[in-house]
Task: structure prediction
Amino acid sequence: MNILSISDVIIPFLNSPELCEKNREVDFVIACGDLPYYYQEYIAEKLGASLYFVRGNHDALIEYGADVDRKAPIGGTDLHRRIVHREGLIIAGIEGSVRYNKGNFQYTQKEMWMHVFRLVPELLLNRLLFGRSLDIFITHAAPWGIHDKPNRVHQGIKAYKWLIRVFKPKYHFHGHNHVYKSDTITETQVGDTLVINTYGYKQQDLSF
Result:
């Protein structure tokens, strides 16, 4: 399963015809927030791939454009507090970051717990029906203590760390924390879960 994951910053070649030359075999696109909706649409459309997204704390309630005003990337699947099944995979997501001002798509740690708890009944049902709860967990913010930062804006989410330890998704993709140094750790194994900071973009084969 080949995926392209994106977040936080526009990558010029992904927003150009060069995209198809370098990414010919993408099964689906994962967008982890803080990206223009038109950019996400363009990538998914050019690759002929399904788009699964969550919003980041800098995303707009409405993105105004010359052609159409968007409340989300057209044709994409909003994963916020949802679980979807796609070609045998179980995928779920939660939008936003920890609350640090009155901006959109920001939540307190308590509210993030409530978002996670909303997923729990179906996660338990999945475990009963399929022998596993979740394959891919997609968020904007990082889990508590993993790829996060001590400042409030980039603080990790405590409920995410609990979810990956209890329900053991194979992969957890997130964005939010920008990567400026080549030695920054962007992939961390936590029990059965590989946590991936996909700042910018990553293309990789997932094994299940």
Remarks:
- The radius of gyration is 16 Å.
- The longest strand covers residues 2-7.
- The mean pLDDT is 94.
